[in-house]
Write a structure and sequence with these properties.
The protein has 281 residues and is an alpha/beta fold. Helix content is 35%, strand content 17%. It has 9 helices and 9 strands. The strands form 2 sheets. The protein has a 7-stranded mixed β-sheet with strand order 3-4-5-6-7-8-9, with helices on both faces. Strands 1-2 form a two-stranded antiparallel ribbon.
């Protein structure tokens, strides 16, 4: 015999009496599918505490993780893309830009800032994948170029955090020109003997990989990051062969000599600070 017996069927709680968790309080790991509390996620540098999966984050989170006390001076914040080709696919490019700005609160797919990392000056340019897939357009190239000029003028090391789907098709050749432009600016940075660190995160593909992402004095990546030029599906269809296990992951790329280190995000700040301190001395 049961101790308790339900006399009324169904749920009788009134809608206005129901309590719901606030939006943004919980996240789900894309890898292990476990629930992650937002406060724990921030404390763990946006890395899953169960499987060590590095969640995709943007410039706001990287600045928070790397800069001392999250204090920095943003550089060139008001640059926005034009529409030199009057491009339209299923909607005008100008309309797509406005939608992305409204959705993300960003002006384009990159932010640059000057701050300190364990007391040492550093300029960070960080891409945001949420803005049109982190695509490299004119503004991305121009901000990187101006950031490099700023570093040369003030003799400050430069860190580039790449996260991109490649060149922005809506700007066509104007986008592709940024590959040569940024590479030339990095050559000037090298001539000035100022350190350039390239951090590749998930995903780093296309023209970004083919230019500034692979030109660092040291190239480092986060664990499991997708790094490549063309996507695995395109390569497989082109060569008509099955690809090796783990193809285009950071670990695979390092094994084949294109990366110097793979660094866990939770240790990233101390590793970068140690490297900068070593170069200074």
């Amino acid at each position: 015999m049961a101790w308790f017996k339900r006399e009324k069927k169904g749920i009788s709680t009134l809608t206005e009496e129901k309590k719901e968790a606030p939006d943004g309080l919980w996240n789900k790991c894309p890898n292990c599918k476990k629930a992650l509390h937002s406060a724990d996620l921030v404390e763990n540098k946006y890395v899953c505490q169960y499987c060590d999966y590095h969640l995709r984050v943007g410039s706001k989170e990287y600045f928070q993780v790397l800069f001392d006390n999250d204090e920095f001076k943003e550089l060139f914040p008001n640059l926005t893309s034009g529409d030199p080709l009057k491009f339209t696919d299923n909607k005008p490019y100008t309309e797509r830009l406005v939608e992305s700005m409204t959705k993300t609160g960003l002006k384009d797919a990159i932010r640059a800032a000057h701050g300190k990392i364990e007391g040492q000056d550093l300029v960070i340019a960080c891409m945001d994948f949420n803005f049109i897939g982190g695509s490299m357009g004119s503004v991305v190239g121009e901000k990187i170029a101006r950031s490099i000029d700023y570093c040369i003028k003030n003799k400050i090391p430069f860190l580039m955090i790449s996260k991109s789907g490649g060149a922005r098709m809506m700007e066509a050749a104007f986008s592709l020109m940024q590959m040569a432009k940024t590479s030339a600016k990095l050559a000037l940075l090298s001539q000035a003997k100022i350190p350039y660190i390239s951090l590749l995160t998930d995903p780093t593909t296309g023209g970004v990989t083919a230019s500034y992402a692979m030109l660092g004095d040291i190239n480092i990546a986060e664990p499991g990051a997708l790094i490549g030029f063309a996507g695995p599906r395109v390569i497989k269809e082109t060569i008509k062969k099955d690809l090796p296990k783990g193809f285009q992951t950071a670990e695979f790329v390092q094994e084949h000599g294109f990366l110097d280190f793979i660094v866990d995000r939770r240790a990233m700040k101390s590793k970068l600070a140690s490297f900068l301190h070593m170069l200074k001395n």
